[in-house]
Write a structure and sequence with these properties.
mainly alpha, 3-stranded mixed beta sheet, about 10% strand
Length: about 450
């Protein structure tokens, strides 16, 4: 069973949706059509009408939820596009203009288009990743697998929980209404009040967890106070927007975009224990440490929706290979699912690019086991920026440890880093030789996690 909506637990379903009939940056046309007709089109494009009804129903719930998630988060509109979703399966789900709609699928959609998936008690519709499960694999629902489960007697909700977890629910009979973009249509400034200001304050406070230079807004009361204005100015300064303290359309959507990206990045990279692993050999090439590959893929997945997150296991398993294939497709690299030299270089450069465009506190590193490499002057490799990120954060919290400029984040262990390592070792009773061996690595990670834990568990001050 799903749960009935309450005043706080649902969103309005849109009457219409605008589909870009191609990848996001293509010259394809936009099509605006009734939301229910869009769902019928996608379901008829993605599913077989001969499948068991419970399998079709589970898949329709996922189709509806993906579309609603795109609209609720304003995924494309917050990035400057004039549509809600694309027809490209590389980015979203299949939509074929003017295609035939199957009768039984049309009937099922009529009955279920106003039901969608949520996780726990969250309001936002779940981005319910799915794939066919035969030709392609993913971290979500296997469409052909739903057929097998339905034939075994699973209900639609049981099928969804099988793939997405036991904490997912269905919101039933959500009301249909006009979809209104989150931007209120006018600038927000000192003295304004209302729901848009309230949501702005919530999002800025969430962003400030990763960007501490943005002051906390207390209380969150929907009143655009001087404190709110100060937070807006700080946000505008960090992200190179005009520092007016006024929230125009550009600032509004930049806040929304960063809020989604930072929240996803934090969820993907803030936890997990890497297990020790041996080098993996493919075609005679020793692949660099798999734990770093998985971590960097997770970082990239926060910014590229085509790249699925992976379990951090330290093993080049099927899920990691699939994530590599999707990464390679996204970057126009031959999709072979192994870590070729070209793939490894692009992964590292893109991850480094993301890190250097964030502030240091915006990067949350997990526990990474010692990779078996001694880092000293002249060492070049993907582990070097990880050492730099750990130590940069530690230096920002311990005055006795100097810090190199964050802008110098790179893949080479230089003399400046040796000085930082020596100071760290001196501070924690290790031999100050400036070399990151296993003992220094383990202490560095331990100190970093302790400091991060203290930060996250310290309540903000008014």
């Amino acid at each position: 069973m799903g749960f009935q909506i309450s005043e706080q637990s649902y969103i309005y379903l849109p009457e219409t949706i605008t589909v870009h009939t191609g990848p996001p940056d293509s010259q394809a046309v936009n099509v605006t059509l009734p939301f229910i007709d869009y769902v019928k089109n996608v379901a008829s494009s993605e599913l077989y009408p001969t499948w068991p009804e419970n399998a079709i129903r589970a898949n329709v719930h996922a189709i509806v939820s993906i579309a609603l998630n795109r609209m609720f988060t304003e995924w494309y509109r917050s990035r400057g596009y004039d549509f809600d979703i694309t027809s490209s399966t590389q980015f979203d789900q299949s939509f074929v203009p003017n295609r035939e709609i199957y009768g039984n699928i049309s009937r099922i959609v009529d009955e279920t288009f106003d039901d969608y998936i949520v996780r726990g008690t969250r309001v936002e519709p779940l981005y319910a990743v799915f794939c066919d499960g035969r030709i392609s694999q993913c971290s979500g629902m296997y469409q052909w697998g739903t057929v097998d489960l339905a034939n075994e007697g699973y209900t639609p909700l049981e099928i969804l929980r099988y793939y997405y977890g036991q904490d997912v629910n269905l919101v039933l009979n959500a009301p249909v209404g006009e979809f209104i973009a989150s931007y209120p249509g006018f600038d927000l400034k000192l003295g304004d009040s209302g729901q848009p200001v309230y949501f702005l304050q919530l999002q800025l406070n969430n962003i400030s967890n990763n960007y501490p230079a943005i002051p906390k807004i207390l209380p969150v009361d929907g009143v655009f106070s001087p404190q709110t204005e100060a937070a807006v100015r700080s946000f505008q300064s960090i992200f190179n927007l005009p520092q007016t303290g006024v929230v125009d359309k550009g600032t509004w959507y930049r806040v929304r975009y960063l809020h989604d990206a930072v929240r996803k990045l934090a969820e993907l990279t803030s936890g997990g224990l890497f297990i020790s692993e041996l080098p993996v050999i493919r075609n005679g090439i020793v692949v660099p440490r798999v734990q770093l590959v998985q971590y960097y893929l997770n970082v990239l997945s926060a910014y590229y929706d085509t790249i699925p997150p992976v379990e951090i296991t330290g093993v080049l398993d099927a899920a990691t290979s699939n994530a590599l294939v999707e990464f390679q497709k996204t970057m126009n690299i031959r999709p072979v699912g192994i870590i070729s030299d070209e793939t490894w270089a692009v992964i590292n450069n893109m991850a480094l690019g993301i890190f250097t465009n964030l502030t240091p506190d915006a990067v949350t590193l997990p526990y990474i086991n010692y990779p078996g490499i001694i880092y000293e002057i002249g060492e070049i490799g993907p582990g070097v920026p990880v050492v730099q990120l750990y130590l940069y954060y530690i230096a920002s919290r311990i005055p006795n440890i100097p810090s190199i400029p964050y802008s110098q984040l790179n893949f080479e262990f230089r003399q400046e880093m040796e000085s930082v390592v020596k100071a760290f070792q001196q501070e924690f009773g290790l031999e100050p030789d400036g070399i990151v061996d296993e003992e220094t690595w383990n202490k560095m990670v331990e100190v970093y996690l302790d400091l991060k834990s203290q930060e996250l568990n310290t309540p903000p001050t008014a």
